[in-house]
């Protein structure tokens, strides 16, 4: 894995965490995740890139 790809994945992880953290608990619940799941969901998202 090169540095460019690593940075791209890190940036995608950070953006996903930021966007999910901005949602309120009801919105997160509507998506089927809890606040404690945010980091896992972001990691899962990045691993699919």
TrEMBL record:
It comes from the Bacteria. Residues 3-38 form the YjiS-like domain. InterPro entries: YjiS-like (IPR009506). It comes from Devosia litorisediminis. Pfam families: YjiS-like. This is DUF1127 domain-containing protein.
